[in-house]
Amino acid sequence: MLLNRTQKNPIKITDKKVVDWKYATCGYCSTGCSIEVGLNEQGHAVSSRGVGGADVNRGKLCLKGIMEHELFNSAGRGDKPLMRDHWHEEFTETTWDQAIDKTAAGIKEVQEKHGRDAFAVISTGQMFTEEFYTLGKLTRGLIGTNNYDGNTTLCMASAVSGYKRSFGSDGPPGCYEDFEHTDCLIAWGSNLPEQHPIIYWRMKEAQEKRKFPLIVVDPRVTMLAQNADIHLTVTPGTDIVLMNAFMYVILNEGLQDAEYIEKNTNGYDELKAEVDKYDPVTASKICGIDEDTIRVVARLFAKANAAMQIWTMGII
């Protein structure tokens, strides 16, 4: 039972004593939101806000961006070098000079005993371009090992390769503004409300104006799937089968733009031969989506004046 519904308490905004705002880019996800971090008289980060004129987030931030300044003083954040001689021992605090000297000595010892490539460096995908450049110089130029990798190999490297082979560029050909021009949207393995809330806001704002259908391909019942017009609960690992089935319907029903394909693409005959193996009846037995639904979605997508597809890491 809800009580005191008529009683309204005023919203109190705490004065963080901000004396200066510094421009930054949110580092949580790949959306690229512009933020300003507020500093107090002591130079400590005490607040975060979106940049109103930014093209990407237009002044908005998700909860992670709003609280980003708290990273600097969050519990458990490493702010001092720790060292131990054996993995089963507890870490003890040391100086930066001692930590660097021990690390350098350990690298030299490994390489002298087992060769230069016996030492490897693994990085994150969250660093800035300048930091990646410096780490590359340190790893290959100074340390001299070829074993340099990062978590991007497990996530974005395949996408970069696919973009390069398909479009000649390592980045996607679309942009956020495309939401405002599309008439049909298919989302593959994407849960925008939780993964990229600002992009979700951009998409929903456009959808409310254009009323385009949202089709979500995901075995999970995500927040995005719950708001979809059509949710395709594909069998995990069979996304390509479903894609080929869509293309089968489009090509065999003559829904493609033949003139555009002739002028701007190559490998059409090879593609046609491959997708002919995945008619809706065959594909439905593999991907778990019934054949009629495959045909309906393929036609809906192909007949849209401007169709759009997005994907995230939920796709294999």
From TrEMBL:
The record's GO CC annotations read: membrane
Enzyme Commission designation: 1.7.99.4
EC class (word): oxidoreductase
Against InterPro entries, the record matches this protein to: Mopterin_OxRdtase, Mopterin_OxRdtase_4Fe-4S_dom, MopterinOxRdtase_cofactor_BS, Prok_molybdopt-oxidoreductase
**Residue limits of the 4Fe-4S Mo/W bis-MGD-type domain?**
19-76
One Gene Ontology molecular-function label: oxidoreductase activity
Pfam hit, one: Molybdopterin
- Keywords annotated in UniProt: 4Fe-4S, Iron, Iron-sulfur, Metal-binding, Oxidoreductase
Q: What name does the UniProt record give this protein?
A: Assimilatory nitrate reductase large subunit
Organism encoding this protein: hydrothermal vent metagenome
